[in-house]
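Quick sanity check, Nicotinamide riboside transporter PnuC:
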Amino acid sequence: MCTYTAVAYHSCSKILPYLHSMSGDDVIRQFVAGMQQTTWPEYLAVFAGIASVAFSRAENIWVFPTGILNTVVYVYLSFHGGLYAEAGLNIYYTVMNMIGWYMWAQRKTTGEKVLHITPSNRRDWLLACSFFALMWLLLYTILRRFTNSAVPAADAFASATAYTAMLLMNKKKIENWLWWIITNIVSIPLYFIKGYVFTSVQFTVLLVLAIAGWVTWYKKQHQTQPEPV
């Protein structure tokens, strides 16, 4: 498994000092101010995002149309907030939601679904971790050299884990939820310090749903299919 702890610590190195410098009253004031400044597009995106994850947990194909609504709005919000890797991520999400919609809708001539929930084998883990590492390095390099991002490491890390999660979700791999959990943990403070307080609340809810999703998919897989070799 990838060395998540070391990479996450490096990615959050610019966020944690900022949060530690804030008192409890500062956090509360920023939270209240952020909620008051929340725009209707952010509300729309948040509720669509929560609905999408809930549909994903239930293995319901509505995960994709609600996901598309969520990501299209966040393309705009991320560019506006200077989270360029997150903006690129949401463009990727939009495309992958369209592809996933098609993949999940496929059925055999008998009417049975083509895709089923399955766990990752060693090869799947190797490919996922390699994909994550490549994306994190690529995004971090781009953000450092070509943008004014204040938190390039954390922005790139959150995006790279989410790229990986979306790829695995389209394949109905159980481990997509583990990658979403990591994404949500990093994204909560990332969006909070950028002023998108309601979005940070969304990621808190999504973190809980991702943990529940992992448990649900794990149980479903063990009820229907044997472990891979």
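Posting the structure with no commentary besides this: Residues 29-224 form one domain.
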